[in-house]
Design a protein that fits this description.
Length: about 600
């Protein structure tokens, strides 16, 4: 790790180390006959482990030496499933499937070879999975007894969400082909069981006639098929009928996020005419029973993921503006909330900066996000603008220890869902088409004047930061606009053409959608490539880069740093020998957060 030395900061009540340590997260919540299970990530060792809640207590199932994480499509998801007597999971180190009972013995390997697996589903002594063999993808079933592999579907570029009907007569899944992304155009496919037990030819239920994004197919107990589709403008639940899909009664809002990862679950059909769902309204999450029966279970929480349900409880991973991610159980009769894991606030509630909805004009449209006031009581505080990655992703109004780290130090924070972010419908999400490096940058700059005009911040002390795609927006904002005092790029894209040459299959056509064809639209690329315009950046910058990053290769960052240094710009760079794309180790995360704060203090001529 290379770094520029600076004096140590004064002791603070909420340090970078504390902020990072509070970043425990959960995923893939599943309820079964043996209790509740989830995958838990802890920053101190960057490992993911399965936990089991049963008889009022939680127990870690994953033994030392294992970490439960899939790398299919590089972003993974669906890394474990429940079986009749335990779990099957993807081991992070070798990406193979392992079988483990609930007795705590050493997991037994189920598959061997070079393939990677994700989106696991267990049915009838088999594990259904998305299989990845280098750049080829297919759906397979793997016998639990001996690991025998059966091919279910192939031919499309990508697959997701293999789902079997309760009577095993129908298999449904999502697939899509290049150049589409899963949030632009996918297909809902079904294959029927034949008399000999084999699956028949695949049939397209939806997505073959028009551009629509479908996700999360579900069968109810009677075998009816449902799916989320955005053909009505938002990801909403629709039901299969003889005449195609028909909509269920639902809010005019997205009922699912952009499917970057496999295995998501933000809605579940229940008894006839009723379903459980989470959706977003004004950026804030809602949770409830919908359809013929309507019941609100939102409570004090503002984001809900990975829903599960049984006769007595609704389970989910939830977070609120004053509490971190937690596994919760909501009594369906009394609405009493039981926190099973997580949910510990790193600060007293009265000391936590709360998100305020941002909706402001930008260019020819408007943009969204959340504003967090500084907690020091200073008038017109400096501002840090957070730019999320993706870029087709989103930020949420939930307790983020990193944001609180800045708020405790006298900075206001604008966490942006710029145009192109998910959570505000298809049209808003599609606004980034051929406009990356333009409308997102416009939104990042517009929020500064919007907040300054209202006397909420000092517009002359605005900073911008982002990771990956957010780093690209950051670099473009600094190169093409005179709004920010300084910026931070965390493994940010400085050369999109170079990124396109090195990127993986899942994002192989993403840049063509975001900017254009690199040959036909070479002038547009040149106009939006920060590395080619490094001479236009006149403010200080700090960079953070993993040496093992295969998405944004370290040379991109080194080239950008060298160009700025040659122009006499104050620049600081930190390289982490043991990190990939996105930092996972607690020490490195804390170091980066603290160094960024010290750098901004230096820029503002304040002694640390």
């Amino acid at each position: 790790m290379n770094e520029t030395h600076a004096s140590s900061p004064k002791a603070e009540p909420f340090s970078a180390a504390k902020a990072v340590a509070a970043g425990i997260d959960f995923a893939e919540l599943q309820a079964g006959q043996h209790g509740l299970f989830w995958n838990e990530y802890r920053p101190e060792d960057a490992a993911c482990r399965i936990w089991h809640w049963h008889d009022g207590a939680a127990k870690c199932l994953t033994p030392p030496g294992f970490s439960v994480r899939s790398r299919v499509y590089e972003y993974g998801g669906g890394a474990f499933c429940l079986t009749d007597d335990g779990v099957v999971f993807v081991n992070e180190a070798d990406q193979q499937l392992y079988r483990q009972s609930l007795q705590g013995e050493t997991p037994q390997v189920l598959t061997t070879g070079v393939c990677r697996y994700g989106d696991l589903q267990f049915v009838h002594d088999q594990v259904l999975a998305v299989e990845e063999n280098r750049n080829e993808h297919r759906l397979v079933a793997i016998d639990l007894a001996d690991g025998t592999r059966h091919l279910l579907a192939e031919g499309a570029d990508f697959y997701a969400a293999p789902t079997l009907s309760p009577d095993a007569s129908r298999l449904a899944w999502i697939e899509w082909s290049r150049p589409d992304q899963p949030w632009t155009a996918t297909r809902l496919m079904v294959s029927e069981r034949q008399s000999d037990g084999a699956l028949g030819p695949a049939r397209c239920v939806a997505g073959d006639q028009a551009q629509e994004s479908l996700q999360q197919p579900r069968f109810d107990r009677s075998g009816r098929l449902f799916c989320l589709t955005d053909r009505g403008g938002y990801w909403q639940p629709w039901e299969e009928s003889e005449n195609g899909l028909i909509p269920l009664p639902s809010a005019a809002a997205d009922h699912g996020p952009a499917p970057w990862q496999l295995g998501g679950c933000t809605w579940l059909p229940l008894q006839e005419g009723t379903y459980l769902a989470s959706w977003t309204e004004g950026g804030f999450g809602q949770l409830g029973l919908c359809g013929d029966c309507r019941d609100d279970f939102t409570g004090d929480y503002s984001r809900f993921r990975h829903l599960a349900v049984d006769r007595l409880f609704i389970y989910c991973i939830a977070a609120s503006p004053i509490s971190s991610a937690a596994v919760i159980a909501i009594d369906r009769q009394t609405r009493q909330v039981n926190v099973l894991a997580g949910g510990v606030a790193p600060l007293p509630a009265e000391n936590i900066s709360r998100p305020q909805t941002l909706r402001y004009p930008s260019g020819s449209g408007e943009a969204h996000g959340f504003f967090y006031p500084a907690m020091t009581g200073d008038a017109n505080p400096p501002l840090v603008v957070f730019i999320h990655g993706g870029p087709t992703s989103a930020c949420y109004p939930m307790l983020d220890p990193r944001i609180q780290y800045w708020a405790q130090r006298g900075f206001a924070v604008a966490d942006l869902n710029y145009r192109g972010s998910s959570g505000y419908g298809r049209a808003y999400r599609q606004a980034l088409h051929l406009s990356w490096g333009d409308v997102d940058v416009e939104d990042a700059c517009a929020v500064v004047s919007h907040l300054a005009e209202r006397g909420l911040i000092d517009g002359d002390k605005a900073f911008i930061r982002g990771g990956s795609a957010g780093g690209y927006t950051t670099l473009c904002a600094l190169a093409f606009h005179n709004v920010f005092r300084a910026g931070a790029s965390l493994y940010g894209v400085s050369d999109p053409v170079a990124l396109g040459r090195a990127t993986h299959k899942f994002e192989g056509d993403y840049l063509d959608w975001l900017i254009g064809d690199p040959v036909k639209d070479a002038e547009r690329y040149a106009a939006r490539t920060p590395l080619l315009h490094a001479g236009d950046i006149r403010v200080p910058m700090i960079f953070f880069q993993g040496e093992l990053d295969a998405v944004v290769v370290p040379q991109q960052t080194r080239d950008m740093v060298e160009a700025l240094q040659n122009n006499g710009i104050l620049v600081e760079a930190h390289y982490y020998a043991d990190e990939r794309h996105g930092f996972r180790k607690a020490g490195n995360q804390a170091h980066a957060l603290e160094r960024e704060w010290l750098f901004y203090r230096r820029v503002m001529d304040l002694a640390p």
